[in-house]
Specification:
alpha+beta; two-stranded parallel sheet; 3 helices
Length: 105
């Protein structure tokens, strides 16, 4: 989708971060991995790592707690020190709300 959107723009779109193994989505898992575990699970695809990016925008479908983003951002900053990195998320998970009317006092 990003390649299609950036087709007429001069943007460098690469899938730089890969996972060593698939993980359960954070919003579907009560036992969430630590930031360190996430960091170790991610790695930079060295086959497309050059040239170094001028800036990085990490795209994801959902922001739950931000741990996956922080781990991916740490991988980018480790490989490319000083490169500005931001996150762009399609959705934000909002925990179930409780209607005050449903609370018994």
């Amino acid at each position: 989708m990003l390649r299609k959107l950036g087709h007429s723009l001069e943007v460098d779109i690469r899938e730089l971060i890969l996972q060593r193994e698939s993980m359960v989505a954070a919003h579907e898992n009560e036992d969430r991995p630590s930031l360190e575990e996430l960091f170790r699970n991610y790695y930079i695809d060295e086959t497309i790592a050059e040239p170094p990016p001028k800036a990085v925008a990490l795209f994801d479908d959902l922001l739950t707690a931000g741990a996956h983003f922080k781990a991916a951002q740490a991988q980018i900053k480790t490989r490319y020190p000083g490169v500005h990195t931001v996150g762009i998320f399609i959705a934000r998970r909002v925990p179930r709300t409780i209607d005050i009317e449903d609370i018994e006092f």
